[in-house]
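I have been asked to look over a protein record a colleague put together. Alongside the sequence sits a line of tokens, each denoting a local backbone shape. I have pasted the whole thing underneath without changing anything:
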Amino acid sequence: MQNAITTFWHVNFRGLLIAAVIAAAATFLSEHYGAPAMLFALLIGMAFHFLHTDVTFSKGLDFSAKTLLRFGVGLLGLRLSISDVESVGYSSVGAVVGFVLATLACGAVLSRLFGRRLAFGLLAGGSVAICGASAALAISSVLPAREDREKDALFVVIGVTALSTIAMVVYPILFKAMGMTDVESGFLIGATIHDVAQVVGAGYSISDDAGVIATFVKMLRVALLPVVMIVAMLILSGAQSQKVTVPWFLVMFLILAVLANSGMVPQAIIDIANGVSRWCLVIAISALGVKTSLAAFLKVKPSYGIILVAETVFLLLIAIGYVVFVGL
């Protein structure tokens, strides 16, 4: 056990340290200049992208951007209250499911228009509709085997990561300009941005309440990933059989939310967990910034880019339309 801890610390220490230092700098700047800490973390991290190619930093940065992020998201379950769910509205839960289905259908139609197979439509549509790069890799694992499947997945991952990063910066500004409340902005961010990390970053750049609501709505989308994978295995000829599991951080989020609302968790523990969660998330966004390559975004094929952008705009428009014309 001690050897395992020592090995883990030796492999990940430098990457964790640089992400933590960037997170501390971002928090300092946020407290003194009033701008969102998550945005500072992303931008400062991007300035240190050259470190991601160094093997002494890469493992720790990957751990921070993935495992630490998911742990921080799981802890957010302690902050979710019944009143938060009610502020969004139970009918909005059904709307989120509708957004996902509509975006998948949009992906299928666009892939047909661009001469691509239905499998690619599900891959691109699922990545936009559910949880970005994670969904792309998970859905790709059950699609029929093809020579270019891995390449398709790679380009989709790069594309949705680029769009998520742009959305993290642009959407909060857009929703504020539209006069959206924190609840409405949180709902829209959770319903439209692709990757979990950028949802958290964008939500908390507006307010803590918007961050919690955005995370809750995003978890609804993540919960649909196993369903989409099963559907893909059933409808596509030659689909690969894989073990479909529910993401552990989603289970953690739901269990902690139930415990917190049952009154079983002391407030002092919740306060400590909230502090730990916030630092985990800022460190994770810092690591994500270091991993973000602007040059990689330019490698996405034009047809891939058009499909992903069109799906992203489609999802944004139907979500805004719901909030404006139906309301939360």
The mean pLDDT is 86. Residues 2-325 form one domain.
